[in-house]
Amino acid sequence: MKYMMFVVSDAAPDQPSDESDIDLWVDPLDAAGKRVIGEVLAPPAESTVVRVRGGKVMTTRGPFAETSEVILGFDILEVEDLNEAVEIAARHPMARNGQIELRAFAPWNP
Question: Which Pfam family, an example, fits this chain (predicted)?
Fold first, then answer.
């Protein structure tokens, strides 16, 4: 099963962030083929929101919603089941400093 793992900031982390922890999380998952891809995202202020209304494309710079939580990055996991995805997400440093959201890939039925 494939899961999208959103790495989200939190206004009240459990402990201070240590960026060096991320390599300890990434390296074994990459070696085991459990992490398909992962990237850090640009800050929300650099985002662009796209909408189509009445056939017109409208764009807005910056985040759409005001929030204290921000998606910082993502990883795509290839795992056996949700339990394995949860176990992997719980080891991510941001599980202590923010939160991790897991979403299974849904079947595409055009």
Answer: YCII
- Superfamily for the 1-41+69-110 domain: Dimeric alpha+beta barrel (3.30.70.1060)
3-state SS of the chain is CEEEEEEEECCCCCCCCCCCHHHHHHHHHHHHCCEEEEEECCCHHHCEEEEEECCEEEEEECCCCCCCCCEEEEEEEECCCHHHHHHHHHHCCHHHHEEEEEEECCCCCC
Supply the pTM of this predicted model. 0.81
Nearest Cα neighbor of 76 from 91, 63, 89 is 89
Domain ranges of the chain: 1-41+69-110
Measured from the Cβ of residue 32, the count of other Cβ atoms closer than 10 Å reads: 10
Residues 89 and 5: beta-carbon distance below 8 Å: yes
